Please model this.
Amino acid sequence: MPGERLLLVDDEDNLRSMLEAALRHLGFDVHPVANGRDALAAVATVQPDLIVLDVMLPDLDGFEVCRRLRTEGKRVPVLFLTARDATDDKVRGLTLGGDDYLVKPFSLEELVARVNAVLRRAGLSQPGAVLRCLDLEMDDEAHRVTRGGKEVSLSPTEYNLLHYLLMNQGKVVSKAQILDHVWQYDFGGDGGVVETYIGYLRRKMDAAEPRLIHTIRGVGYTLRAER
Amino acid sequence: MPGERLLLVDDEDNLRSMLEAALRHLGFDVHPVANGRDALAAVATVQPDLIVLDVMLPDLDGFEVCRRLRTEGKRVPVLFLTARDATDDKVRGLTLGGDDYLVKPFSLEELVARVNAVLRRAGLSQPGAVLRCLDLEMDDEAHRVTRGGKEVSLSPTEYNLLHYLLMNQGKVVSKAQILDHVWQYDFGGDGGVVETYIGYLRRKMDAAEPRLIHTIRGVGYTLRAER
DNA sequence: ACGCGCCCTGAGCAGCCTCTGAGTCGCCAG
DNA sequence: CTGGCGACTCAGAGGCTGCTCAGGGCGCGT
Model:
């Protein structure tokens, strides 16, 4: 699972380095470039397993980059990043070949989920196992959460938050980390929301013993089996 | 069932790579070419089990390609792709030889269905089993849907949508995925149609408990047995 | 020509989801 | 003991999503 090569194409410096850091930290071999021409050149040298490709680029647009790759016979899977409004007409047909797209602004969780999904479909990554902690289970493919066998109904944000906690079970994550990973990267508010949503999760899936979500005062939260 | 060799012949780059990706993703061994001459050459080297052949080609037209193959004694089954109006006289009689045709623009679901049908007639593919989910059954060959033993009458789009949901039961599919697979590839509208058709399906075949079609708010829909 | 079924759109509506702010509690330090 | 800060809870405004329904256009068969 470790070491897949990612080609990351985005012209916004800020966002690009943020994504680079995040993906690198997850064990990917990230190669960042800022425009379409460099992207095409890099494909030959890097031989990436996946391209994360912004649609809005200064020179060639993302679709054009992809088209040229395909006519050259390259079949690298692509994950497109698109702006909110350009979404409807041009994006049609993207989910067909194992490719996919993501609407800006997104959260890191969503990006990572899509990256793994695309790699999985391309046969380069393990089938996404069911996440588990004691009697808590999350089946990501079916988007289903159960605690002690009983189904728990979660809103999108609650689901993403729980997913992040499960991915980091045993470790303590700060409110800042949670905001950075679960909320959209342009979110302006403070950490108060996180407290609210931890509260929602506790009520919905952590009401009975043993408690799984623990507060580490002054530090953050952790999801763990024992006390 | 896996690994049949398909020769894909179409001169529109966009469509060709879209179909290539989609069919490859379904497990076929796809060989794309862009014109009639390359097609004839490729038949010898690839030895395809089926040819998906656009009728409108820059050099030889699709029928001509087929004719030459037949005079050489090759009996590979052919699935023609035709434009809306060229349908009438020429295409008649095509279904007699085990061949078939599809009118552009089509949906991926239709293409896959025809591909499998042709392969099945040629004895290269398993008879399409009956799709089932609890007391809901779809016999694709007979084009018949029953819920709890009672026949349900569906319009073409409703049928295709249900077929796609059945093929993906247990998994969540987004409105975008549904549009990409069930609607014609040149459809320009937004996801509102999908909501409408989910509504139609619910009324026709999901009125009684237990419900099979579930909405995952903010994500998509899923077809599954339990609640 | 006419009617019918099918497909899609748009408006209206209801319920859910998200986030904020205020109030309270409890831990810890001084 | 007391003050301060961090965390929890609750209620509510506002936005957004998805559902439903009615209607118009199109194609096909009568």
